[in-house]
Amino acid sequence: MTETKAKGSDGAPILEVVDTTHRFGEVVALDNVSVTARRGEFLTLLGESGSGKTTLLRIVAGLERPTLVGRISIDGDDVTHTPANKRNCTTVFQHYALFPHMSVGQNIEYGLRLRGESKGARRKSAERALDMVRLTGLYDRRVHQLSGGQRQRVALARAIVTEP
């Protein structure tokens, strides 16, 4: 009998960023940075304002193209040249980036809609994500009616609903 392991369960890195440099004109934001994280580990980026933390995260998510890069892999898949919408990676922005013209539920469903999921499946997944972040029953609420903490949890639900 053969045993099958879930992808990434063998101790292999879930995230690898290798030899990454990024410049904004003459300003070097990242200088040959390499980072590795294994499944279950927590990775914390600490540094002064302007030290490149957000730039690195934007590069991992595919929202920024590095000036030079050795490799970026997520769960064993080389995503170095993969566009953001094709990476199994999401970002919760500091300022939420919620769509003010959409309901809470529509905001959470956004990534699923882009992936072509049916309306019923999207709603069910969004409501499950709302339960997870303890915002049960707020599917139809408007974003402007939420507190800052609730908006942050909606942004988190939108990030996790696609199961990145």
Features:
164 residues; alpha+beta; 4-stranded antiparallel β-sheet; 4 helices; 29% helix; 18% strand; globular
Short description:
The protein contains four helices and four strands.
How would you sum up this structure, described in words?
This protein is α+β, with helices and mostly antiparallel strands and 164 residues long. It has four helices and four strands, in the order ββαββααα. A hairpin with a 2-residue loop joins β3 and β4 (77-78). The chain is globular and about 45 Å long. The model is unreliable at 1-5 (pLDDT under 50).
Tally of DSSP helical segments: 4
Identify low-pLDDT runs: 1-5
| Rg calc | 18 Å
Strand line-up in the sheet with most strands: 2-1-3-4
Order of helices and strands: EEHEEHHH
Helix content: 25-40%
What's the overall geometry?
globular
Q: Quote the average pLDDT.
A: 89
Class based on secondary structure composition and strand pairing = alpha+beta
Q: What share of the residues does DSSP label as strand, in percent?
A: 15-25%
Major sheet characteristics? 4 strands, antiparallel
- According to DSSP, the number of beta strands is 4
The CA-CA distance between the termini, in Å, is 31 Å
